[in-house]
Amino acid sequence: MNPTQATLIDLRDAIAARSVSAVEAARAYLDRIEQYNGRLNAYHEVFAERALARAERVDAGEVGGELAGVPIAIKDVLCTEYGQTTCSSRMLAGYRSPFTATAVRRLEDAGAIILGKTVMDEFAMGSSCENSAVGPVLNPWDVTRVPGGSSGGSAAAMAADLCAGAIGTDTGGSIRQPAALCGVVGVKPTYGRISRYGLVAFASSLDQVGPFTHTVADAALLTKVMSGRDPKDSTSAHVDDAQDMADVDQPVDKPRIGIARQYMSDANDPAMNRAVQQALDIYRDAGAEIVDIDLPLTDYGIATYYIVAPAEASSNLARFDGVHYGHRAQQADDLIDLYARSRSEGFGDEVKRRIMLGTYVLSSGYYDAYYNRALKVRRLIKQEFDAAFERCDALLCPTTAGPAFRLGEKADDPLAMYLNDAYTVNANMAGIPGVSLPGGFADHDGHALPLGVQLIGPAFDEARLFRIARLFEKHTDHHTRRPPL
Ligand code: GLN
After folding, report:
1. Which of 69, 209, 225, 295 gives 22 a disulfide partner, CB atoms 3.0 to 4.6 angstroms apart?
2. pLDDT at 445 over 90
3. What is the pLDDT of residue 242?
4. Which domains does the chain have, with CATH numbers?
5. CB-defined site of ligand 1, < 6 Å
6. Alpha carbon of 417 to those of 134, 397, 412, 424: distances in Å?
7. Is 174 a catalytic site residue?
8. Single pTM value for the model
9. Using an 8 Å Cβ cutoff, are 211 and 469 in contact?
10. Catalytic, out of 88, 132, 150, 342
């Protein structure tokens, strides 16, 4: 077996059966990173020695578990007590965390091997990885295009087989959108499913950790391993799942698939709408009931998200002032000047834009007009989904309007960039899970570019959502195709 060409579960099983050693697997991935990372800039830091040392311990039987020996990439927004945690920002260049995020710890407790930290949009703000202070990530399917963001390094690493599984975070689409643009599976679990302890906060009421993989079964396993109540995150939920979410091959009895015309805009790439239509046909042929759902509030998602998320960001990022945390300016006249200079030097343009937006919508006089109003719309969006899930088990829609765009194409137009998240932000606003699946390809200038179809389900119903996702995957082979590296 070539460890870098296997699915995560197959590799895990091969290591357990000792037909491949954990050291061989780690070496194979490290070699591939060596070969391709220079071209893609997916990893910011690679823990080669640490990974090999842990792999030896797996082979010696000292480290075991459900993921024993499986090499995983981690978005650089999750704290690790080894290596750096920089959020791809100058502000945190060289920062070493004294602790490890719970999600990462759970992976390691299950025997996973952390290969390194992946490049992202600075502080997870962006949809292209062009907001990274350590250079953009390139899309493995066409290196003139973006991988999506903000977890673009994890998505690109997964697509290029520079890891067996990757971890990202999703506040408004940052797992699902890059998964779609890179042709891999990406999951944003229910808010509260996975602990946020050790995740550098962007918008705390929206942030969730989740996996990138090639298959639904692999994603379900990683989600399951990271899930569960954590006393260190008061928003992590106590859930006793009736069903095992990793058991994705369980049949789903006559699933009801909802389709909303609001997601099937004429402005979408025609190939995207065809991909959703084909997915719908697959479900129909598999015995699903197709239900028309009306989601008129879809159009309000972006406007609402870009009030709520920056508001929370402006508060969360206040700690980076050069004194408590982060880059400190060399020279300053007084304390206020030190804050101003440190923050001006440490943050990039998009982060500054969000802090200004957030500060504005929270300022007295505007708080009610913007922030409170946005919270009300957010509640209505949640209620609209609640009503939809009375009538269907999952909503099927595009993850994005089209495939990966070119580097630089939207970099100077924040609004065009924000519109990338039109189909993903509302799941975050409602706190419900969403999965992006490889759904087909669009041909652009001789390049096959991946398209993602999305399934959105009710809160804490990942078990059924994964089974419905698996049903689609079983009837397609998009997930088996690899970029021409
Ligand atoms: N692209 C969105 C933003 O820039 C979502 C980011 C995310 O999910 N972290 O806010």
Report:
1. 69
2. no
3. 78
4. 3-257+390-411+426-480 (3.90.1300.10), 299-373 (no CATH)
5. 124-127, 150, 170-174, 202, 309, 421
6. 20, 20, 9, 13
7. yes
8. 0.98
9. no
10. 150
